[in-house]
Write a structure and sequence with these properties.
341 residues, alpha+beta, Helix Hairpins, Heat Shock Protein 90, 2 domains, five-stranded mixed sheet, 7 strands
Length: 341
């Protein structure tokens, strides 16, 4: 009996620790949301330019009337030099005001578009961060009354939701770091073959769970790259994770690695839902999601590929994405500079 009580106490302590981690991740998520809210306020401030547009247009109308009066005086046989100069100055001022008014209207339209985008992003972020909190809140409320044999399963559920929230928050922070140039890499000489093997090991359970056929072609020799091991693993994890996420059961995912002329090339192909021609040029932009991919095997923020691009470029490499269209699979190619021996 004492042994059972001890196990229950240990499980409760573990669950409490997980809830504490949830609190930490929630604080981080709120900080990200606060930053997005500030951007939304800035976009609102830009809309105040609308009043300036109206003032410019009104001033332009007054100048047009004055120019018409000046033009009517042009029929007079003797126009003084001062009148001619005044007429030219007024016409030039009118042209400048028209250009300024059009420019202000363009800025207003851009600000309104940015505001709408920020609203959509805030809604999406709030929704994605709220989803894991629902089961966590339900489990927390039942934790005291849960039978001891159910505690390990509850703990596993909490851990899964905490990991999901952590990934969302980390991706949001990475996008923020990229936009402010605050990416920090702990570079060292690493063997990319080993990094790839580790990334495959991490993604294999997902492939199995989605009933996918996975294959990899890797060279037997080491491939030295100057990079951050954790970030390089993150790059491959995001790409392999996307391939698994957007490939229906029974599909295939393949990874091929080649090295030539001092450049490492990694190709990840899948037979998944593909990318439409409309979305393909924008897939690496933040918060962009292909319409037919929304809701497929769960939702996301549309920032995974943005993080991949920023990390690859921070390592001096490139990443491209290709697809023949809806339902025709995708291919992503990452290149990284090799370290010469």
């Amino acid at each position: 009996m004492n042994e059972a009580n001890g196990k229950n106490e240990q499980t409760m302590v573990t669950a409490a620790r997980e809830l504490f981690l949830i609190g930490q991740k929630t604080v981080e998520a709120r900080a990200v949301l606060a930053a997005l809210h500030k951007e939304l306020s800035d976009a609102n401030a830009q809309l105040a330019d609308n009043q300036q547009v109206e003032q410019l247009i009104e001033a332009n109308q007054q100048l047009v009337l004055a120019i018409l009066l000046a033009q009517s005086d042009a029929e007079k046989p003797k126009r003084t030099q001062q009148e001619q100069r005044l007429y030219l100055e007024m016409r030039e001022a009118n042209e400048q005001l028209v250009i300024a008014a059009l420019s202000a209207q363009h800025l207003q339209a851009a600000a309104e578009h940015a505001l709408e985008q920020q609203r959509k992003v805030l809604t999406m972020v709030a929704h994605e961060l709220r989803n894991p909190l629902t089961p966590i809140s339900m489990i927390a409320g039942r934790l005291v009354r849960v039978p001891s044999e159910e505690l390990p399963r509850m703990q596993k559920l909490i851990e899964g939701q905490v990991q999901h929230m952590s990934r969302l928050v980390e991706d949001l922070l990475d996008v923020a770091r990229a936009s402010t140039g605050k990416f920090h890499l702990d570079n060292c000489i690493v063997d990319m073959v080993q990094i790839i093997h580790e990334s495959i090991d991490i993604c294999t359970p997902v492939m199995i769970a989605h009933q996918l056929h996975f294959s990899a072609e890797l060279p037997e020799c080491a491939l030295a790259v100057n990079g951050d091991p954790l970030r390089l693993t993150q790059i491959l994890g995001n790409l392999l994770g996307n391939a698994a996420k957007y490939t229906p059961a029974g599909g295939t995912v393949s990874l091929a690695v080649t090295a030539e002329d001092g450049v490492l090339e990694i190709r990840i192909r899948d037979t998944g839902i593909g990318i439409t021609a409309q979305a393909l040029p924008f897939i690496f932009e933040p918060f962009v999601q292909d319409a037919h991919a929304v809701g497929f095997n769960g939702t996301g923020l549309g920032i995974g590929l943005t993080v991949v691009r920023e990390l690859v470029e921070a390592h001096g490499g490139t990443v491209t994405g290709n697809s023949a269209g809806d339902g025709k699979g995708s291919e992503f190619v990452v290149t990284l500079p090799l370290v010469s021996h």
